[in-house]
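Appendix B, Record 12. Input sequence as logged:
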Amino acid sequence: MTDVHLVLTHYWFDEIYEGQKTVEYRDNIPFWQKRIIEKKPNRVIFHRGYTNEVILAEISKIDIGECPYEGWDDKYIRVHFCNVEGKKI
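Logged structural output:
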């Protein structure tokens, strides 16, 4: 099983934990293409900043497309996820 680790601000971490957000967006640049598109991870581990709080989620789909947030007008790598489980390690 391949994992990708993504660090989030407390706002986005809490949105995922509360079930309000089910897609994470990353710039479509070589750095993220290598870690997400090429490696094809099965699971995403979200970190709340640089703390021990993490959320584990199964990746259901990875694609490239638009972001619904205002001002984000490019195409982004979209990591769709489900089966969210929050825990501390």
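The chain is about 20% helix and 50% strand.
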